[in-house]
Write a structure and sequence with these properties.
Length: about 290
C-alpha cells in the first residue's frame, strides 16, 4: 500500500492501516472519512500524538468536569470567555490562565480524549483514508504520545469480535509467533494478564487449533484474544507447519500431572501406595519411550 495514496477501509482495515504506519515509523496526518464524518489522526515516528474530529471529539471541558478537575462554575466562566474571544482561544489554555488546571491535568485529559476518539474509529467498517506525510497539528494543540498497539488492543476489546475473528484468523491450522519490534521503534504495550498468559503459548510451533486446546480460557475467548494480538501486530503468522511432537509431549506432561495428582491425593494403605508408585513409574517409562 502506498502511504501517499488514499485507500478504502473495506480493503484495508483501520488496525492494518495503523499497524503499517507504526511499523514504518511514519510521521504525518492520517485523514479518515465516512460519509460526512472526518477524523484527522496525527502521528510521529509511528506513535499517535493527537487526533481531531469535529463530529466525534469528546468535549474537553466536560471531560475535565466529569473527572472532578474543575467545577461547573469554572467551566461556564471559561466558556463565556472563549465566546467573547470568538473561540480564538483554546478552552484548556483559558483554564490554565485562570489557574483552574495545570499542564499535567490538561495533557492527561487530552490523552483520554484522543484515545476515546480512536477507539470509536476502530468500529468503522466502511470509509476511506489518506495519509499526508510530514503534516502535523498546529503548535496550539496539546500533543501526547500513544502507542498504536495499545489503541488497537483496547479498541477491539470494546467491539463485537465474532466477525473479526473469522476475518483475522481464517486458518486455525496456521502457526503464529511473537513478532519482533521494528527497527528503531520501542514498544509501549499495556496488555492484560490474560493476554500475556495466552501469548506465552504462541511459540512459533503450535497451530492456533493446538493453542485453543491447551489454553486456560474457553475456545471463543482464546480466539478473540489471539485475533486482537494479531491485529495489533504483536503476533504474526509464519510459514511453518504445526509441530506434532510438541503436542505429544504436552499430552505426556498433562497425563503425568494427573497421575501425580491422583498419587498425592489418594488415601490408601502402605502396600497400595507401593502399587501406585510402581504404576506411576511404569507410566513414565512408557510415556517417554
Amino acid at each position: 500500500m502506498d502511504l501517499d495514496l488514499q485507500g478504502n477501509i473495506e480493503r484495508f482495515t483501520l488496525p492494518e492501516i495503523f499497524q503499517l504506519i507504526a511499523s514504518s515509523r511514519k510521521s504525518g496526518t492520517l485523514g479518515i472519512q465516512r460519509d460526512d464524518s472526518i477524523v484527522m489522526v496525527y502521528l510521529k515516528d509511528g506513535d499517535v500524538i493527537y487526533s481531531y474530529g469535529p463530529r466525534q471529539t469528546f468535549h474537553l471541558g466536560k471531560l475535565l468536569r466529569d473527572r472532578g478537575v474543575i467545577n461547573d462554575t469554572q467551566l461556564e466562566k471559561a466558556i463565556r470567555e472563549q465566546a467573547k474571544n470568538n473561540n480564538s482561544k483554546r478552552l484548556g489554555e483559558i483554564l490554565i490562565a485562570h489557574h483552574c488546571i495545570d499542564r499535567a491535568d490538561l495533557e492527561k485529559v487530552v490523552k483520554n480524549q484522543v484515545e476515546e476518539l480512536l477507539y470509536s474509529l476502530l468500529s468503522w467498517e466502511t470509509g476511506s483514508f489518506k495519509f499526508y506525510e510530514g503534516q502535523f497539528p498546529t503548535d496550539e494543540e496539546i500533543t501526547v504520545k500513544i502507542s498504536v498497539e495499545n489503541i488497537i488492543l483496547e479498541g477491539l476489546r470494546r467491539i463485537d469480535e465474532k466477525n473479526m475473528v473469522m476475518e483475522t484468523l481464517p486458518d486455525l491450522d496456521a502457526v503464529y509467533t511473537i513478532s519482533s519490534a521494528q527497527a528503531g521503534r520501542s514498544r509501549d504495550v499495556a496488555m492484560e494478564a490474560t493476554e500475556w498468559n495466552l501469548m506465552a503459548l504462541v511459540d512459533g510451533h503450535r497451530s492456533l487449533e493446538q493453542i485453543c486446546k491447551i489454553s486456560p480460557f474457553n475456545r471463543d475467548d482464546t480466539l478473540k484474544k489471539l485475533a486482537r494480538l494479531s491485529l495489533a501486530g504483536i503476533i504474526t503468522k509464519t510459514d511453518r507447519k504445526p509441530d506434532m511432537q510438541n503436542v505429544n509431549l504436552e499430552k505426556i506432561v498433562n497425563r503425568l500431572a494427573n497421575l501425580f495428582e491422583d498419587y498425592i491425593t489418594v488415601k490408601s494403605p502402605a502396600h497400595n501406595n507401593r502399587l501406585i508408585d510402581r504404576k506411576v513409574t511404569k507410566t513414565i517409562v512408557e510415556s517417554v519411550e
